[in-house]
Amino acid sequence: MHFEEHFKSQLAEIKENGNYRFFAEIEKSRRNFPSAILYQAHHKPRNIVVWCSNDYLGMGQNSKTVSAMKSALDNCGAGAGGTRNISGTNQYHVELEAELADLHAKDSALLFTSGYVSNWAALSTIASRTPNCVVFSDAKNHASMIEGIRHSKAKCVIWKHNDVADLAEKLAKEDPNVPKLIAFESVYSMDGDIAPIKEICDLADKYGAMTYLDEVHAVGLYGPRGGGIAEREGLMDRVTIIEGTLGKAYGVMGGYIASSSIICDFVRSFASGFIFTTALPPAIAAGAIASIKHLKNSNMERLSQRENVKYLRRKLDENGIPHLANPSHIVPVIVGDAKKCKYICDVLLDSYGMYVQPINYPTVAVGEERLRFTPSPLHTHADVDDLVSALSQLWSQCALSRAVA
Length: 405
What we know:
single chain, Aspartate Aminotransferase, domain 2, 2 domains, 7-stranded mixed β-sheet, 15 helices, globular
């Protein structure tokens, strides 16, 4: 077999259908976020406005976050120096896990190198080491959750997205004596819809199931202290395991779970994704601590972001640009064609200095291609006006359907 020819042909196929991923080389401008500098071959660097960052609240640029990281870097140097088990645990890791446990009103928390790894490691470990465990997985769960469940080799029952009746029906069909785990998200990243957490927890109680809630797109953003949707709705005590990230609203990187001391210790002791990898750098942990502490006490960023989300939606409506209605901070604008989706993004960047990444298959289904906007507290109304004006022109140019008020 000619391996490289085989790989080349598959790359050619995704390029042809518009699903090939191009990475924009950008340098964030700390004091000017969401402005950034774009670097392109054969072009001079130029300023752009970023519309698709997962640094949802701009905390990656926050002076408290940056100062804490600088101090830790001066104190500890660059890297952790080992796995958590072998010389890699430092005081910042311990303090950060305590902050996260407090955030979610849990006994304990456990850090991972990313949100992807925390989902993969925790789900695969719990499901594989619970004899005869059956995992009930929402149909739109993130790839990291799907891979973790798959790796566990546990029986997996997929229930219709956010459909409590379907989940109830599937739970009722299962042997009442087998262990059960319901895995779902609070805010779904592509559609921006929110799970019916209370109703799912009610079913978990009825059928004796554990619950595993991914709050990656909610921590820092919702709840009085940024504890996520479960905190906002007063349900944290009813969720067995809460998973989150430090790489979105908190502006740094890393993932975690928060749960009982026993469950966290169990995952710590058996999860290969925790045991056999270098710990997060001390500076990253220090930055996360500062960011979490700030957002536990400040609501300003959340309120400003919500105002900008509301304003963007209103301007899209005024211009007939279709977007998915949802109660979250994520604004998905549906294009429905991979090539047009990429074209719009290319022109926005090249001609208007606005950066949004096309969301195509396999991240979303074919025919559901979209632009995914994440307004931050630091965007201005003028930024929004400029964006929607450019979008409106491109909508006409691409002969895309307008929404009817």
